[in-house]
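Many introductory courses stop at the sequence. We go one step further.
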Amino acid sequence: MSEAQSSRNVPRSIGAVVAGIVVGAALSILTDVLLRSAGFFPALGVRVADSLLALATAYRTVYSVLAAYVTARLAPRRPMFHALVGAAIGIVVATIGAIVTWNAGPQYGPHWYPIALIVLALPTAWAGGRIREAQTAKAKSTAASAA
């Protein structure tokens, strides 16, 4: 790859990672807001029951796989690398969140929840990246057999 091509890929790489993060965050926030308005989740500042946090963990897991897939899909090359960069950013952000809220009060819920977000960041990113890699491999295989 030439230097010019490489320098053109940097903004696309950054854009792919940012797009994936935005997708995951937007879906999570939107779902939280909808569940809160429907009365499933309590108002902000009120402790959320463990069962509801388990639900939040489940949909955030699905959204994280989708976010990593979006990142990998938009990546100019090396889709898994880009998905894992998104995971690394997620781990840092979730760790900061856990540290800041650890003993800040019961409204932040039990300690297992931020730990779950940290632990799930890498496997969900791998899954999203792997889905994209499988699609790419299938497309190459189909193209090769058609030739």
